[in-house]
Amino acid sequence: MANPLAKVAMKPARLITLLLAIWSPWRPVGGAEPIEIVCSIKPVALILAEVLPKSAFRLTTLAPLAASAHYFELKTSDAMKLSSSPWVFYLGKSLDSWILGAKKSQAIALMSFLPEHEFLYIKDEHTGRQSPDPHFWLDPLAVKAVLPKLTENLCGNFESHCPQIKLNNQNFSLQLQEITKSIGSEFAQTSVKGRGIITAHDFLGYFARRFEITYLGSIEELPGKEAGPKKLISLIELAKSHHLKTIFSEPQIADRSIKNLAEAAKLQIIALDPVGASKEIKTYADLIRFNAREIHRGME
Length: 300
Prior knowledge:
The chain is 45% helix and 16% strand. It is α/β, with parallel strands linked by helices. It has a domain at 180-299: 3-Layer(aba) Sandwich (Rossmann fold), CATH 3.40.50.1980. The strands form 4 sheets. Strands 2-1-3-4 form a 4-stranded parallel beta sheet, covered by helices on one side. Strands 7-8-9 form a 3-stranded mixed beta sheet. Strands 5-6 form a two-stranded antiparallel sheet. It is globular.
């Protein structure tokens, strides 16, 4: 009678592969499927990816990288993704509130964890109304200020992963401090600090405040509201009086007015990337360093 173990003995490579699959340290605890978390836009996913244990969670982003987070509309396929997970994270009501139509009671806003003293506000020049500027993720230390309450929330929802979440939080906090120090030092040494900047839309306020850049204005004052002739003339005069060389665009914003302003003020156009659309941006650190590098290049 044939030995039933002979087949196993004849294929040791297959047995080793099986054992590695069972005991791999990257396999979720207990062999369970990764916990699915849906994120509104890529910056949300980049922040959560630094805090959550990679082997236990899977992050999905809804808005395509080419789309503006301000204007995105949910599709049927997006609704299916949302229905498949009880865990949904977004930035805040003044940016990606479109996600609330499907997950209003369960969606968690990262901006709700930002201390009020860190807030910046965007003013509508026509109505005088102010609304919170949601682009805090472009300031590493503003993200650091979000981490304590974010970590508390994640530990409350995922208790078994809390020790690793807390450790990741500590490591990410240190990384954010190092990024801030490195960029600040570079800007100070190369005279970027204190220089003026004009952008496609009002998204760089937190970054400019942190790294002491003078934010002169933007073409698109509020989402979907491009500057009129009077504002464009004012921006042209500002660009000339501050001896600017560059206007900074972004992939998600139409470039007609940008080109008109650049031509009138004799500026070059350099694209920044606030949401990480570039293929080279795979981590939060990549996102901040990419934009810092392009701003530096535009001011040389």
